[in-house]
Design a protein that fits this description.
There is one protein chain. The chain is mainly alpha-helical. α1 (about 1-10) runs antiparallel to α4 (about 70-160). It has helices at about 1-10, 20-35, 40-65, 70-160, 165-175. The chain has five helices and no strands. The longest helix has about 90 residues, at about 70-160. It has one domain (about 1-130).
Length: about 180
Amino acid sequence: MTGHVILDEVLHTPFERLHWLKGEFNSLFDLINERGGDATPLKNKVERLTQQADDLKDLQESYSDRITFVVQESRRIEVGIKLDKASNWLNAKGTHYNVMKAKLDQVESHREELLKELQPLYDEKKDLSCQMVAWEDLLQVAEQEVFDLQGQINTLNATEVIASPPKLAWKRLKLM
């Protein structure tokens, strides 16, 4: 869209005033670049068109007193054809640029959506990581308890057992 506006402005501005538009074009190119686009191809085309217009102006001024009207018209037609070709090329590239810019905007929008979808996963990961640290602590405590109890079992198994008293004596002890 911007390329069409710039081209339209170039085509409708008299040759002698095209150099005044350079500042406006530069601010538009800066705006395109600031928004993430690449205005270089468009800038190059506009500069070529304005240079061709300047060349035509210079040519007209240098030959204006020395050429006939027929020659002047012939040259004007020739330059007009070149200008039409350049303008068509600029339009085609401007359209291609706009399509690419729209795709870039679509990709950026999709990327932002995916980042929004990722945020809950990052939060869940953080929560699970905290839970894992707590569980690791609990597991270490449980492992230590199992180790201690296993040690107690081993100690009990290694302890020498004394013979138990005869059964009758044992019953008498209970009765007392």
